[in-house]
Amino acid sequence: GWHNEKIKFQPIYTMLYSFVIIIIYYLALLEKKKYYFNNSLNWKQGFLSGAILSLLIAFFNPL
Q: What is the pTM of this model?
């Protein structure tokens, strides 16, 4: 399985997953700014939204 002969592919899949996470962060914060905060997002609101999103992504992160 993934813990012996295929372990060499782990860094590649981790990097691909990271790109997906970055895109999700960007799109989620953009949508939050546009629809929830009426195109007016300050630093505190963005930080709090990003922190909540981080917790959700960490929870659903494949183990």
A: 0.66
